[in-house]
Structure formats: C-alpha cells, structure tokens
DNA sequence: AAATGTTACAACCGCCAGCTT
DNA sequence: GAAGCTGGCGGTTGTAACATT
C-alpha cells in the first residue's frame, strides 16, 4: 500500500552526509516554523533533500535535546535491562533514556553490548547462557580419538624422523583444539555463573591441554586470572519465590518492584484478556498511566503501560512461562 | 610510510500502521 | 472498503577514523 518511500531520491535529490550549511538551513527552518509536514519541509527550507532524510537528520542528530558522547555505565545497564524485556524495540528503549535516540542505542548495541554479551557466553537475543557450547562436544570426542591415534601410531612407527614429522603436524592440530577448548570452557564458565546471579570480575576456569615431549596428551583444569568484562545481566532471582498462581495486578506490580535489578525477563509480554491476546509492555509507560511502579535497575521507577489501564487492579493474574494471564470468571 | 583490517556511527532502505480521502 | 499519504521503526549499508601489520 502507498508509494515507495522517499521517491524523490530518484529525481536527483542529494544523498549522503549532510554539510554544515544544510544542517544550518534545517535547524533555522524548524526553529522558526516547526517541522510541520516533513514532505513539504525541504522545499520550504531550501534543501535539496527528501523529507524523510530531513526528518532523520533532525531526530537523530540536530535535535537540541540530544545527549552526545559516550554512554555511561548506568545507561549501558539500562539498555541491557530494557533489551532483555523489550528486545529490539529501539524506539521504546530510547524513551527510557533521555537524550538518546533509537538509532544511537541500536548502534551502541550492535557495536558494543552485543559483542560483550557474546564474549561472556550470553545469547544477546535471549539474554540467557548460550547453549551452543554443546556444539564443541564433537571436538572433545575428536580430541580423545586423536590421542588414541597418537599412542597407536607411536607403537607402530620406529622411524624417528617420520615420528618427528608427525609430531609437528599434530602439534598444530592440538593447538587448534586447545584454542577451541579454551573458548568453550570460558563460555561454559560464564553460563554456570550467570545461572546463579550476577557475575562480575570473577575468574573463569580454563582447561588446558598439555602435549609432552613423548606425545602424551593430558588435560588439566587451572584457575586462570582471566577476568570477564564487568557486566550485570538481569536474571531470574533464584532467592525469590516464583511468581505463579493467581495474583492481583497489585501483587504482580509489587513483585516487579521487589526484583530491582534482577527482574524476570519476559521475552514476549502478552496479556490474555478474555479471548483477546494483547501484546504489550507491562512494565513501562508514562507516569500518567496505571498507578503502580515497576523498578528497573533499582533506579528507574516506571509505571505499567497504558493498556493496563483497561485492567482492574483487583483482577486475578498468573505469571506462567513468562506470560502474564488474566483469569476470567 | 603504505596497505590492510576493524570499528563506530550516520544515513539509507523497505516495510508497516494509522490516518485521511 | 480501497487507495493514497505520512511518519515511524528496525535492519542494513557506506564510509571515515583508527588500529594493526
């Protein structure tokens, strides 16, 4: 439906980076007249750009309330918490970070946070420990087979020079396996620790493979002083009773606020009201919305979203498998 | 010093929802 | 109800800056 976006681009309008002069024209116009219709704006402002390009430039870069510079650790933590709940809803996340644009947050996520989580063995999409550590199992099996093969061939070969040649090639293989093991063990260590809570600045165990002069292969586990990056991952609070059974919206809300940084992360929030499944964001909204609070990161006290207004405070709810259901009588 | 690789981020693209005609 | 328009969103790309070889 509708036309293709920014059709004007096909008619010789400028693309690419904005010049200072263009920026100034855009800012001057909007400060005087407001943006009004974005489509009409470029012509009125004397810009050879499409309206969409002007809107993006303004909202992502020129707007006066934009906070520039590096993200603080508080902002970083907020993004992590919010992403664990909302997923790639960058614009929604941006509403909780004053002065930050959705584009900026998205870029920061893709270039920093995503990699950081992967390094820690956390799946950036689910915010849970990665399960692909199991994928390294075949390598471990192959390693065992290789050790057996080495012993077998050692008995077979008497020719010293031939054995030397073999050792060299196998040493390369071993080094590769060792590298693989180090990676998978770090992943597993991160996975284990994150299941029990926050893991920050704690040493990760590492398994090493030793190849002795006579090709004996041994594995031992050492505690290496390799520290994981400082990062707090929101997880289910194991010390807290699971939020199950019938609960009023007030109880649910209280539960949420009690979680502080350890908020249970619903990957997808759905509210079942009668036969209608409503998708939404139960923990975030404007303060004018439902009068209950849901603390995120121990600081950000937000309220339940607008669609919760529809729900009576004494309605019965059940949180099951990260979905919130309302009971109907 | 030059070539090559990597990172960061601004900007673009395609799609969609909501509104109007 | 269909078609068109607009603004918004999320994914992707292009490129400048920086790091490494």
UniProtKB/TrEMBL annotation:
Organism field: Zostera marina
Compartmental location: Nucleus
UniProt protein name: Uncharacterized protein
CDD domains referenced in this protein's UniProt entry, alphabetically: SANT
Entry keyword Lyase: no
Ranges where the Myb-like domain occurs: 10-62, 63-113
GO cellular component, one term: nucleus
Principal cellular location given in the protein's record: nucleus
A GO MF label: DNA binding
UniProt keyword list: DNA-binding, Nucleus, Repeat, Transcription, Transcription regulation
Domain HTH myb-type span(s) in chain numbering: 13-62, 63-117
């Amino acid at each position: 439906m509708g036309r293709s976006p920014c059709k004007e681009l096909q008619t010789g309008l400028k693309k690419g980076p904005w010049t200072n002069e263009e920026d100034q024209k855009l800012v001057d116009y909007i400060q005087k007249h407001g943006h009004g219709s974005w489509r009409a704006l470029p012509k009125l402002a004397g810009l050879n750009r499409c309206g969409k390009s002007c809107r993006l430039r303004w909202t992502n870069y020129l707007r006066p309330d934009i906070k520039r510079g590096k993200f603080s650790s508080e902002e970083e933590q907020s993004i992590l918490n919010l992403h664990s709940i909302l997923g790639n809803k960058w614009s929604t996340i941006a509403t909780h970070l004053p002065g930050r644009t959705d584009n900026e947050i998205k870029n920061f996520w893709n270039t920093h946070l995503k990699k950081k989580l992967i390094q820690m063995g956390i799946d950036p999409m689910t915010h849970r420990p990665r399960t692909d550590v199991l994928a390294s199992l075949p390598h471990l099996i192959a390693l065992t087979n290789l050790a057996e093969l080495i012993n077998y061939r050692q008995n077979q070969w008497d020719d010293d020079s031939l054995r030397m040649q073999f050792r060299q090639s196998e040493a390369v293989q071993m080094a590769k396996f060792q590298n693989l093991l180090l990676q998978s063990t770090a992943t597993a260590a991160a996975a284990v620790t994150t299941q029990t809570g926050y893991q920050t600045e704690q040493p990760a165990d590492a398994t090493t493979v030793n190849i002795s002069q006579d090709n004996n292969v041994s594995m031992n586990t050492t505690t290496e002083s390799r520290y994981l990056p400082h990062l707090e991952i929101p997880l289910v609070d194991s010390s807290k009773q699971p939020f199950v059974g019938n609960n009023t919206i007030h109880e649910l809300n209280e539960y949420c606020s009690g979680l502080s940084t350890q908020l249970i992360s619903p990957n997808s929030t759905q509210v079942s009201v009668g036969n209608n499944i409503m998708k939404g964001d139960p923990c975030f909204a404007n303060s004018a919305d439902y009068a209950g609070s849901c603390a995120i990161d121990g600081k950000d006290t937000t309220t339940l979203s607008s669609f919760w207004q529809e729900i009576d405070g004494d309605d019965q709810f059940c949180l099951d498998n990260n979905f919130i259901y309302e009971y109907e009588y």
